[in-house]
């Protein structure tokens, strides 16, 4: 299925942010708006795009090219009359479309799940499905928004100036080719907007809607909406499996770092994984000296590596660069980093105190920690089902190491870790055994 | 969807094995034939059964009950005329069936995948689909088998005495209720067999077939076919992810042990997991003495625990008791067992030689081994795609420990393990990075 993206408008209201760029190229956390629309659609399974250009179309074409750098295919059409209604932009793509298609706006961001759901829907006799928002959300500029009236599962009216309305047009559509006839009919009536075409379908009882529910969407029209979108994207980086240290401390630092990195560099998530590993290595090396100042510094570095370890996933998600391999390689490096840090602690303590018990406690602290991560793979699936919030993981382990190091208690720290990690593993095995569906 | 199982016959030819039991209760590796049929169907997604009883039906009813102990529901019907053709057995269940249903024979074993595939098929205008075997397999008694002739995707003739034939009736059917009319029609012609009813459907162009391909099935009619089925079931316990030591050494011992256990005890797979863990614990304890005789014995025990570790999965599969939790708990126990064995080796060596280097090598041997299993979770998925046969895993690690212990080389063994396991982990990360689809 193709997606048609309207990228013809000028976007006057956001000009102060986008400078002399056309609105679709307005940057947001390392990607332009239209890149976010394309990559969101791609992650919902769409690989073929038709983009309607108008105001400063050359700049957009130059930026996106044939789409190969995004792993998609992009065709362009030009709408010379872009200053008129946006219905003309849709009509200008008529020759490129010959089956049902998705219509998107280059300045409307959305959660890919919304589009995934829309693609599953069937037209079932209708010629269009419009995604609408029936909640009243704070960030929606009601004056500027396109409203709809509905009856049963059909749209019965649409327009900016409806006095009473049931929902807001989210700018995400599934259409059959019949929308082109409807747009022509609307043109005859003197209405050159997309809403005009939708109204023609609605009048004939051929326009359905899909409720966006809790799915996220936003029309980026002003500096304020751009800020709101940024805030939402950054907040969504906190994962449901995050432990407490990660959620309340590490993310507070790693997210601003990730924001800086995506806005100012092209660094890859895998490179960040390796940097985090190297910081752990340095921490292990400092621990091995066995003297307090080294130990304290090493503990701080261990916690710092834990923070940086959040950035690879954050950058991957912000830039649509998540990969199964990347996540796996990162997790393997994390396990080695954990073990090497503990090894450094044991070695340093041994060299200074020659108490062989450190090898025993360190051994069980390392094994317990690695097996924490090993058991988590399956346990997380169970936690998901049971919606438990508490999670003992790497964030807590490295935080304990930092605290213990600052107060020069390597030996005690390893004893505590050996107990906590192995008890947690036992707890997981016991809790899971009580799950009926396991 | 319901499954109707014909369990009315006497099974004279197998009487010497089943003693005075009705044939469906003939034992095979810890379960009776009809239990295997029910549990195979259950694992293919069928939960409601109607069983036709005849010869010694009370004993079957007594054994199976209402099915709740298998997690299914079983109803019974009685066919007083069980000495006559088996078409009458099917007819006797007419009142219990009011939609499409699966028909199975209580003495025909099959791979659940075959039934899974049959359930996906649509009757598409026909009134029956018969699973047929178009290969000529050594274990099929051609004289006694029911043969079929086919044209395109339809069955055109069926019977024991066809001169020319295209395939063998596997005794696995999907029927609409129309089979009952066809059986009555056949009865009028003087043929009271199921094949008679199928022939009526075939004559009217309403009987399709499904080719069983490489799927396993067997009609248990004689002592020889029972032995063949046993051999097949035991052979199928070897897993594609088994390492070389497991495949060529451990399974040769564990499978006969599992056979003994399912035939003579009711021991649960999880109990075996725990026994294997306890043997490892004993091995670790013996290692901790640090003297050669203890070490050699400990090494042999480690290898023995590796062998017993195969039995839990084997028993689970033989008795249809596989569970996600059981497999997971076993893997967590295995990781702890591995670490404790290595800890025993380190501790014993330290006590005798007080060389602190043992702690370092042991640490990395343990960590490398656990991370072998950690990386395997994802790597196995890749191996599957690439069909590599070689796999470095627990079987090899414990075998190396046994060899090293016999020759009293604990120190060297841990060095070797530290290198092999960690290099293998590095290899996996590198190989995976080159997989395009990752």
Largest interface (C-beta under 8 Å): A-B, 34 and 33 residues
Can you give the mean pLDDT of chain A?
Answer: 92
CATH top level assignment of the largest domain in chain A? Alpha Beta
Name the poorly predicted regions of chain A.
Answer: none
How far apart lie the N and C ends of chain A? 39 Å
Description of the structure:
Two copies of one chain form a homodimer. With 438 residues, chain A is α/β, with parallel strands linked by helices. The first copy, chain A, folds into two domains: 2-228, Alpha-Beta Complex (Spore Coat Polysaccharide Biosynthesis Protein SpsA, Chain A), CATH 3.90.550.10; 237-433, Four Helix Bundle (Hemerythrin (Met), subunit A). In chain A, 54% of the residues lie in helices and 15% in strands. In chain A, strands 1, 4, 5, 6, 8, 9, 10, 11 and 12 form a nine-stranded mixed sheet that branches. A two-stranded antiparallel ribbon of chain A has the order 2-3. The first copy, chain A, has a two-stranded antiparallel sheet with strand order 7-13. In chain A, a hairpin with a 2-residue loop joins strand 2 (27-28) and strand 3. In chain A, helix 11 (292-318) runs antiparallel to helix 12 (324-353) and helix 11 (292-318) packs antiparallel against helix 14 (394-406). The longest helix of chain A is centred in the C-terminal third of the chain and has 30 residues, at 324-353. At the A-B interface, helix 12, helix 13 and helix 15 of A face helix 12, helix 13 and helix 15 of B.
